[in-house]
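Extended Data, record ABC transporter domain-containing protein
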Amino acid sequence: MADSGSGSGPASFLTRANAILRKNLTYQRRNIWSNVRLVMIPFYLCVVLVCIQALVESQVNNSVDNQCGCACIDKSHKIGDGKCEIICGIEYSSRKQGVFCAIPNPQPWPPLMLIPRPQTRAINANYTDKSCMRKNNCPVTILFTGNNQSLSEILSRNLLRRSFTMNSSDLLFTLANSVLLATTFKASATNYLDEGIVSDTSIYNIQPRCPPNSTFPFSIGQPPLNITKEMRCVQGLNLWKNSSKEINNEIFKGYQKGNSDKAINEIAAAYDLLDTNTTNFNVNIWYNATYKDEKRNRPIKLVRVPRLVNLVSNAYLQYLHGPRTKILFEFVKEMPKSETKLRLDIASLIGPIFFTWVVLLLMPVILTSLVYEKQKRLRIIMQMHGLGDGPYWMISYAYFLAISTLYIICLMIFGSVIGLKFFLLNDYSFQFIFYFLCINLQISLAFLVSSVFSKVETASAAAYIYVFGSGLLGMFLFQFLIEDISFPRRWIIFLELYPGFSLFRGLYEFSRYAFRGNLNGRDGIKWKDFGDSTMDEVFSIIIIEWFVALVAAHYIDKISSSGKDPLFLLKTCYRKSPSPQRPSLQKQVSAVSEEMEKLDIAQECEKVKQLMLEPSPRHEIVCDNLKKVYPGRDGNPPKMAVRGLSLSVSSGECFGMLGPNGAGKTSFINMMTGLVKPTSGTGLVQGLDICNDMDRVYTSMGVCPQHDLLWETLTGREHLLFYGRLKNLKGSDLAQAVEESLKSVNLFHGGVSDKPAGKYSGGMKRRLSVAISLIGSPKVVYMDEPSTGLDPASRMNLWTVIKRAKQKTAIILTTHSMEEAEFLCDRLGIFVDGRLQCIGNPKDLKGRYGGSYVLTITTTSEHEQDVEMLVQDVSPNAKKIYHTAGTQKFELPKEEVRISEVFQAVEKAKSNFKVFAWGLADTTLEDVFIKVAKTSESFNVFS
């Protein structure tokens, strides 16, 4: 790597933030078509809503049945001339069309009292005789109570009319004067055509006792909207109750929940006369308010209630002034109206489920992106190269927020341009603030939930279940509960704590206001409606959950990615505690450790102790008695992976770690790179503790992991630009360092540097990983089998690059290639069973553990004994290490023989018997490794 590429020091917060921002923008540019498809999803759904609305407009809103009726009137008075004039108006309309016509003089309707349906009425005074239910002639029950029972009973007798005479010349006056009319229909939204009169059911006349012929037909209204009804008599039953508590009990026995038909014993009305007397009229009235406006807590329509007030007022006046005193309640009517048109906005009605899906579709995108970095270990490798939590969180959050905001703006623009009332009628700033809060909560939840998943496929499946499940549950469960006024409001608020329901509730309010605004020719929701629309509670819930989710996500991220203790805010980095081994096992390990202690290991330990006493250690890497114990699982004992490792590596030195698989090399590297915390011991990198100062350590560290951790859509050049910026390289220094890095690992020519890394071969990826670890001339580099999978020419070239880079760097390298270890490493340590067995440069190790020659002789089988005698003559302490089919190998101690003596002995043997082949070799590093590893196997029982 080029020296010119080194940065002036650790990268600042803004420099690292700039690096990841540029990387994210580049990554986004590589996935531009995915983003286009994502942005087009709300457009497609809006188009679907427009198509549905167009269908409703043609088949419902513009239907002849839903507009003022018209007729073709022949005004020429010439029969059969075929000429007529289209004239529209209420007189040419059906009853259904009449409500859409201009009505300058609305029809007056007689006031009606609301009573229960025949099959649900209270049976009688004792509620025991149910025969009236079969005959549909149960009485209409009205309850009374008060402080003065005698007065209350008088008023109850005055309540109902005893007889009537019908005067057809003034029907309304007759009905107001002599008849108590009632209906089982609740009042509709408008009273231009009272449902209680125009419906197919009868009008009831409540009397104390019904005569035998108790039905009477009457007509009301002007042609062609005149209505002929049958008035039927129904008995009224007044019952005294001792207290209002009893009345409450009776009312709730027959409480009709929603549209349920299961209610029985329903009471028509009840009066509590309280302290009423001759000088004071004070009364409470109970009436059926099952259907009411849940926000204002009052009935939707009050035209049924005044009749109850009129009844008790008349009864009191008759008590005071005699039976001839009356307050006439002649009719009820609407205000005059102009011609109207049905404005059924179906898009607003079904908008909540559609737009819940649209907004929540961002969740899988964000979640899979976060889990992808986790699954591919990209977050870890970025952290190891100096990207701290602060820049990562700030840029990642801002990146997702910018994408989400653009997505929401496109949604609002699409919806408005194609004419959806859901967007056009509601205040734009109100909508944007709501969506903005929702996407912030969504991003925070994605960060929080990403800690649960380790696979992109699993995260994606769970996210889409959340998306579509939230929409369907919101439409078919939550909306039903919202509109059920009997459902406790506190439970609605509790359900809104689920983020999908809080989003749905806000969209439901937008939908409701847009639908009503379109129906009545008004605007939708405005800021002045903030408190009345329940949006205040929705906003509060979203803001609180946003804050809580963000804090929780950051806290869990600290624990999972940094390996911190769950109580790291209250404790120090880790709690030094003794190994969880059994005492007897500890003693055994200690004894074995003392037995296996070698002079070179002891010298290294002593050197480390001296370095630890210095205020600022001269060596880049110092490890003092590092231990790592993994807790036992499934009944297995704890596993001691690293058993008290002491090591120092200075700048300009490459230290090679050799060892069989499972020896503990990876655990040691993981501790030094911050992936796991040591159980005990200390590790210093440039004087910084690997437990307490790992964030600072990362700024001067490079890592080449065993498996290549790369973005498949980024090119080799873009990878190096990103990691170079993390190492504080800028401008021309960055460009020069990237170019020289690519050239050094043979990735510069032929357009390879600008190809996506996903199209690289395994060897090319390996070379890129080495270049990443060395860019910026880090002070400490860890390489895990850097040349694995390379051809001989590329491997030699890579070794040259590493050897040149180590001049100003401390490198710890693990490998299984003895040739690589000899070429690159200044010192080697053979690591077996969690501890160093020996340490030194390659020549010293071969001299120390390989103090013998290996003699190989191949003869016929009958001369094997002669060969053994020959070797014994040359070296009495020779040891046979191999024997098969006439071929034998012997170890000859170097201090006992000379090479010339061996040659002379073999030449002499050739004159006595046939020698097919022979050879004499010095000990290799591989022989040393095998010998040390085998020697340590006898102690594995204690590991």
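Summary. Confidence is low (pLDDT under 50) at residues 1-6, 572-597, 938-943.
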